[in-house]
Automatic annotation (TrEMBL):
Protein name per its UniProtKB record: YceI family protein
Source organism: Zobellia barbeyronii
Pfam families to which the protein is assigned, alphabetical: YceI
UniProt KW Signal keyword: yes
Signal peptide (residue range): 1-20
Length: 171
């Protein structure tokens, strides 16, 4: 009787540890943005990731990913073509926008991720706040395009861009 109980107990704890495993990779992302002063919405794709998220041991996690500037879409072909040119994103010289985490903090609603954003050859620290929704992380951040050499307007405040990132997680 004791061996049956022991076997059952080991089986239960094994199942609990498998289901409690909180390690994920990022399989895809949907990245959208809103350029406030121009009231322009858009998206960017071509996502690649080397991210690993371990919710049970967050210090072992890392976020690293990029998107292809060539994929920028704002719903206006001429504007998209102009944005990809030398004056703004300069896709020929800077084909990717990249992010790499430097610190990940778990909070009650999800994660706060600090890292470096590389855009048009300029590297700046940025914070992205994510909430966990089933097998997704939904993140938001705000940046100023002029901080990265992309001055759409003269005043810094008029270059404010709100970014939303939806990451699909897989085990």
């Amino acid at each position: 009787m004791k061996s049956i109980f022991t076997t059952l107990l080991v089986a239960v704890f094994s199942c609990v540890s498998i289901f409690a495993q909180e390690e994920f990779t990022v399989s895809s992302a949907e990245i959208t943005f809103n350029f406030d002063s121009k009231n322009v919405d858009g998206s960017i794709s071509g996502f690649e990731s080397e991210s690993k998220i371990d919710f049970s041991n967050i210090t072992q996690s890392k976020f690293k990913g990029s998107v292809m500037v060539e994929t920028i879409k704002t719903g206006n072909f001429l504007r998209d073509w102009h944005l990809k040119g030398n004056k703004y994103f300069n896709v020929d010289k800077h084909p990717k926008i990249a992010f790499e985490s430097t610190q990940i903090v778990k909070n009650k609603n999800g994660l706060t991720i600090n890292g470096n954003l590389t855009l048009k050859g300029t590297v700046k620290p940025i914070t992205i706040n994510f909430t966990k929704e089933q097998l997704q992380l939904v993140g938001t951040t705000t940046l100023f395009s002029s901080d990265y050499g992309i001055a759409i307007k003269q005043d810094r405040a008029d270059n404010k861009v709100k970014v939303t990132i939806v990451l699909q997680l897989i085990r």
